[in-house]
Specification:
about 20% strand; about 260 residues; alpha/beta
Length: about 260
């Protein structure tokens, strides 16, 4: 067995650059840490460049690593694995994966029945959670508009719990340009807005969730920008029977997407 790579080894130094967005974009690669993320990545081994594993992680996940024999597994020290991790407790198992972006035009040419667009969403944990929820509800794509968190950052990848590998990702697209093109292709664009003119249950009852549908969610504090919400077919509010002031973004997205999947 070869000697474990250290935190100063060239391969580890190169991989560490992927913890920054500029490094990911330059290399066209990102890191996926932990068994769940690595397992989902290895389901398409052509998209995995290599896996770094400590001795303990390699022993604990021998079955997983043996299932993709064409993917190189590099032994690393605990310190090297920690240098690639953005968590307090590194898991010792990290895959280097190719970015999974698809062009926005693919959504226009073949709109999925359900998709999500995020306008200036700031928190990477929310980004990953929305990806996971979109996957659970059968969405085909999530669009990260210009200014949104990077879905390939460590926190977002962890929060997606592997769903990043199941849903098409579109990044950096100017949403004011994309929305009219989707509408022209027959997509109903719905903006989640606490002050929206239509209630979610009414929109479901009148058939507007039948699809194809794109849900537009905004910034955690400011919501969907007014100019962008004005481009939607309908601004939709979630009726609240209790006394809560509002719902956080992840909860609102889960409700909207769940109700939509039921309608479809």
């Amino acid at each position: 067995m070869s000697e474990p790579l250290t935190e100063r080894s060239a391969r580890v130094v190169a991989a560490r650059k992927l913890t920054r967005r500029s490094g990911r974009d330059a290399a066209g690669l990102f890191l996926a840490e932990g068994r769940q993320a690595v397992a989902e990545a290895l389901a398409d081994p052509a998209g995995v460049r290599e896996v770094f594993a400590t001795d303990a992680a390699a022993a604990a996940h021998a079955d997983l690593l043996a299932a993709a024999p064409a993917v190189p597994v590099r032994p690393v020290t605990e310190r090297a694995a920690a240098s690639l991790s953005e968590t307090v407790t590194p898991q010792g198992l990290v895959a280097v994966c190719a970015l999974r972006d698809v062009p926005a035009q693919s959504l226009v040419q073949a709109p999925p029945r359900l998709a999500v667009a995020l306008a200036e969403l700031a928190d990477p944990g929310n980004a990953g959670t929305v990806l996971r929820t979109a996957d659970a509800c059968g969405a085909g794509a999530v669009v990260f508009g210009a200014g949104s968190a990077d879905p390939y950052g460590g926190k977002a990848v962890r929060a997606s719990a592997g769903s990043l590998f199941h849903v098409d990702v579109v990044r950096g697209t100017p949403l004011p340009d994309l929305l009219p093109r989707l509408q022209a292709a027959g997509v109903t664009v719905l903006a989640a807005d606490g002050g929206g003119e239509a209630a979610l249950d009414d929109v479901a009852a009148d058939g507007r969730l039948a699809g194809p549908v794109l849900w537009l969610f905004g910034n955690e504090a400011r919501g969907v920008p007014a100019e962008l919400a004005g481009r939607a077919d309908v601004r939709v509010r979630i009726p609240m029977r209790g006394r809560a002031e509002s719902l956080n973004l992840a909860a609102a997205a889960a409700i909207c997407l769940y109700v939509t999947q039921l309608a479809q």
